[in-house]
């Protein structure tokens, strides 16, 4: 495409976001809260240490229906010990961390086994944990059992550029949701019937909800003062 | 007089006249495109319905492949209203989040806010500390919002199926509800009224009086709608047996809400996985068995009546008390009042903060500029939205901003069912089927 006008509307190149821009959300520090670095702080806050997210295995018993779900899956799925990486119970919710390549198999069992019966896949989405390279993208599947009125979250972690199997053959509802994950994070689902962008334009460059993708924005003037765009304002870490 | 020149590559022919150059855009290029196609051997046509179309509920685009009047393929295309709300949330503090999420599904803003606040409260571990009055107001307002959302559904669906007067009536009655919201939150839409820890401010007595009047007013109007539509032959023909989707289809496509209940499965999160104290209210879950547009109409009309029942009970249990959590580390320190430039912090309250003590001023400043911290972890909260299950997946890394918030919006998931409902049916049924899903593109595209 050229910029030469031949009588019609002048042709311009589509402008995407700058992919080489630095990460705009600074990584959370373990020490030195409120953005304090070095000296200058006499309050003592700068010396506070932050607790890291606990993703350790939860010890048995998990409580509630979680033990039943765990045991039923173990019984119904021969590759259980190999596929389940971790079991976390937090805030009354059960999360099964599953090896990415096994996620479709596990979902099949979760849906079909009589003592599990997770008929509905409520939601599929991803979280970008930038900085943990091999487990950067966590794809979360929120499964709902209408028979037993239970919820379970299955989570599969992949590195950038690594694909995982699509669950659309088990839960057709995951079709658009996996497309959204692909669109926003660039995670590729093998076996998806039509993995294209869904919310962003087809010719968009980059995946907007990655943590290293800039938010963008322009400064605005309000009552004489200039307010910087949200991603350049002062951040309390 | 004139001399005609033809530019080879351009779309239009041009000629010089005494007044200047004149372009001729009669569309002759279509002849060259269609000339080579034999009209008899090629009866399939592809029609682009939308994204700007009065009967697609906003900017939804449907690519239809037609053989005569029969639809052989439908491909819904969404994303025209994507506003990046989820990404924006990551750059604001937890309390500011409600002002963003309320703009997602603009017909059900209070559900977006409640879902978000329930998720934040679950992350904070303060779900049980929310005051009774705050929970009752949340239920009250969600049910009023459900009614207003269903009224827009019946209004727009009426319009799309040829009952224009239904549109006027539906929007007229919705205005009553918006007045109540305005009286309480200051805004007709996009209220940011429900906040982590409670609600922004108490409900005024004048609004309670208005709700009581509305409870008497609406049932008469519902009767009028049914008198107008239910016995109507055109309405019946356009809805009965149209866009059928059974329970199996609904579950595999993830369709929830009135569409699922019209297929006969009484799945309503208010009953099956209660929140905000719904387990203490007396109401039924209406279902139908026809699984068609007619069934969805019956279910929604019955749901409006059930919501009225809940509103009445909520009003009765409205006891005086705080509407915000007692924990001052979380409760937003604001007393709103209408000032010269709109709703804002009341001057008396500002004077109180400024005059009380230095510590109180520091606390206020820290909480407003920095926000509160949320312990690391993730939660998923599902609530019953007028269109189905609204799921909020919130992740915190321990900071003052959300690390990630994802909305499972029912409009987005339900829209996947359009091909299953419409393929093989008539073109006119695409409109009826799409309308019966009640999609709101603001929620779908977020």
Strand fraction band of chain A? Answer: 15-25%
Tell me, what's the shape of chain B? globular
How many distinct helices of chain B?
Answer: 18
Average residue pLDDT of chain A: 78
Query: CATH topology of the largest domain in chain B, what is it called?
Result: Cytochrome-c3 Hydrogenase, chain B
Residue-averaged pLDDT of chain B, rounded?
Answer: 86
CATH class (first level) name of the largest domain in chain B: Mainly Alpha
Plain-language structure description:
The complex is a heterodimer of chains A (237) and B (446). Chain A is α/β, with parallel strands linked by helices. Chain A has a domain at 57-164: Beta Polymerase, domain 2 (2-Layer Sandwich). Helices cover 16% and strands 21% of the residues of chain A. Chain A has 4 helices and 9 strands; from the N terminus they run ααββαββββαβββ. Chain A has a 5-stranded mixed β-sheet. The radius of gyration of chain A is 23 Å and the shape is globular. Residues 1-29, 38-42 and 44-54 of chain A have low confidence and may be disordered. By secondary structure, chain B is of the alpha+beta class. Chain B folds into 2 domains: 1-37, no CATH class; 85-330 and 372-440, Cytochrome-c3 Hydrogenase, chain B (Orthogonal Bundle). Chain B is built from 18 helices and 13 strands. In chain B, strand 7 (194-195) and strand 8 (198-199) form a beta hairpin. In chain B, helix 5 packs antiparallel against helix 17 and helix 13 (347-356) crosses helix 14 (358-369). The longest helix of chain B is centred in the N-terminal third of the chain and has 29 residues, at 132-160. Residues 1-9 of chain B have low confidence and may be disordered. At the A-B interface, strand 3, strand 4 and helix 4 of A face helix 2, helix 9, strand 11, strand 12 and strand 13 of B.
């Amino acid at each position: 495409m050229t910029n030469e006008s031949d009588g019609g509307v002048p042709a311009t190149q589509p402008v995407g976001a700058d992919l080489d821009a630095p990460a705009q959300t600074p990584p959370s520090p373990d020490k030195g809260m409120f953005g304090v670095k070095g000296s200058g702080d006499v309050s003592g806050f700068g010396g506070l240490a932050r607790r890291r997210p606990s993703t350790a295995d939860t010890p048995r018993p998990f409580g509630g229906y979680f033990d039943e779900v765990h045991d039923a899956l173990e019984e119904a799925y021969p590759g259980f010990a190999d596929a389940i990486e971790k079991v976390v119970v937090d805030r009354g919710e059960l999360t099964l961390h599953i090896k990415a390549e096994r996620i479709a198999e596990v979902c099949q069992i979760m849906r079909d086994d009589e003592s599990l019966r997770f008929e509905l896949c409520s939601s599929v989405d991803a979280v970008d944990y930038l900085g943990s390279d091999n487990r950067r993208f966590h794809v979360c599947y929120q499964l709902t059992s209408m028979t037993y009125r239970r919820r379970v979250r299955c989570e599969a972690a992949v590195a950038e550029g690594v694909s995982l199997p699509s669950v659309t053959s088990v839960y057709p509802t995951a079709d658009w949701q996996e497309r959204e994950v692909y669109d926003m994070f660039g995670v590729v689902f093998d076996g998806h019937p039509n993995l294209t962008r869904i919310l962003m334009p087809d010719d968009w460059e980059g995946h907007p909800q990655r943590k290293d993708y800039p938010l963008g924005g322009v400064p605005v003037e309000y009552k004489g003062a200039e307010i910087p765009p949200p991603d350049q304002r002062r951040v309390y870490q | 007089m004139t001399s005609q020149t033809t530019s080879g590559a351009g779309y239009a022919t041009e000629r010089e006249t005494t007044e200047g150059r004149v372009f001729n855009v009669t569309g002759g290029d279509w002849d060259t495109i269609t000339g080579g196609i034999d009209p008899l051997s090629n009866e399939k046509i592809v029609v682009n319905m939308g994204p700007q179309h009065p009967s697609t509920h906003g900017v939804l685009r449907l690519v239809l492949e037609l053989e005569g009047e029969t639809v052989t393929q439908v491909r819904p295309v969404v994303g025209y209203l994507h506003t990046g709300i989820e990404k924006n949330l990551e750059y604001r503090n937890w309390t500011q989040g409600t002002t963003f999420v309320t703009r997602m599904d603009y017909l059900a803003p209070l559900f977006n806010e409640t879902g978000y606040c329930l998720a934040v409260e679950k992350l904070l571990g303060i779900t049980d500390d929310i005051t009774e009055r705050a929970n009752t107001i949340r239920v009250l307002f969600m049910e009023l919002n459900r009614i207003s959302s269903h009224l827009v559904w019946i209004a727009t669906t009426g319009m799309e199926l040829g009952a224009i007067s239904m549109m006027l009536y539906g929007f007229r009655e919705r205005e009553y509800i918006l007045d109540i919201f305005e009286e309480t939150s200051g805004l007709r839409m996009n209220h940011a009224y429900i906040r982590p820890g409670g609600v922004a401010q108490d409900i005024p007595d004048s609004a309670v009086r208005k709700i009581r009047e509305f409870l008497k007013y609406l049932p008469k109007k519902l009767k009028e709608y049914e008198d107008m539509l239910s016995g109507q032959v055109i309405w019946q023909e356009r809805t009965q047996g149209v866009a059928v989707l059974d329970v199996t289809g609904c579950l595999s496509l993830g369709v929830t809400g009135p569409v699922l209940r019209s297929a006969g499965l009484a799945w309503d999160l208010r009953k099956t996985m209660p929140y905000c104290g719904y387990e203490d209210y007396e109401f039924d879950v209406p279902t139908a068995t026809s699984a068609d547009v007619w069934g969805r109409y019956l279910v929604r009309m019955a749901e409006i009546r059930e919501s009225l029942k809940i509103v009445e009970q909520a009003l009765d249990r409205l006891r005086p008390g705080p509407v915000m959590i007692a924990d001052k580390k979380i409760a937003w320190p604001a007393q709103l009042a209408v000032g010269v430039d709109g709703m804002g912090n009341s001057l008396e309250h500002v004077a109180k903060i400024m005059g009380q003590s230095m510590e109180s001023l520091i606390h206020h400043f820290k909480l407003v500029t920095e926000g509160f911290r949320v312990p690391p972890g993730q939660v998923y909260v599902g609530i019953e939205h007028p269109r189905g299950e609204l799921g909020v997946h919130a992740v915190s890394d321990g900071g003052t901003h959300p690390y990630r918030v994802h909305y499972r919006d029912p409009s987005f998931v339900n829209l996947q069912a359009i091909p299953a409902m419409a393929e093989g049916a008539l073109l006119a049924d695409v409109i009826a089927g799409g309308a019966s899903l009640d999609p709101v593109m603001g929620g779908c595209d977020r």
